[in-house]
Design a protein that fits this description.
single chain, 0% strand, 5 helices, mainly alpha
Length: 144
């Protein structure tokens, strides 16, 4: 039983490292941001989310401003949701690293409900799979 606990913890750590690496990959296309535009907390969270967010009205890319540069739509509510989803995915990764599969799965599901991403779906699937592997036993949620 102890060996299976160690194997499960090693698997969780490896999966968490893998997912963290996916999130940290640089974007495939170079950014066309003007360097002198002030960066806000919202735009920083949006860039690191690894998702290309667009204005729902005119489909222009988010440029770190709360008002769409093309059509003038208020983007702040969407930006806040994108940042919240990113924070939940980060919390899910941390919960996985700590071995708390139930909590990680809950965070991943909530994040996907707010803003679905490929990385978020991979995180949700990993959590669901680990939950079936570990079952209701304490193999993944016990302290190391």
């Amino acid at each position: 039983m102890t060996r299976s606990v160690r194997v499960a913890h090693a698997l969780v750590r490896a999966a968490s490292t893998f997912l963290s690496t996916l999130v940290r990959r640089p974007p495939k296309t170079p950014s066309s941001r003007v360097p002198d535009i002030p960066r806000t907390t919202l735009s920083s969270g949006l860039r690191s989310a690894g998702v290309e967010n667009r204005c729902p009205v005119c489909q222009a890319r988010f440029r770190g401003a709360r008002i769409c540069s093309r059509c003038g739509a208020d983007l702040e509510p969407l930006m806040l949701l994108a940042v919240k989803a990113w924070q939940l995915r980060q919390a899910a990764r941390q919960a996985l690293e700590a071995g708390n599969v139930e909590r990680a799965l809950g965070f991943a599901i909530e994040a996907q409900g707010i803003q679905g991403t490929d990385g978020g779906e991979a995180l949700r699937l990993l959590g669901a799979w680990l939950k079936t592997v570990c079952g209701s036993s304490s193999c993944c949620s016990s302290p190391r």
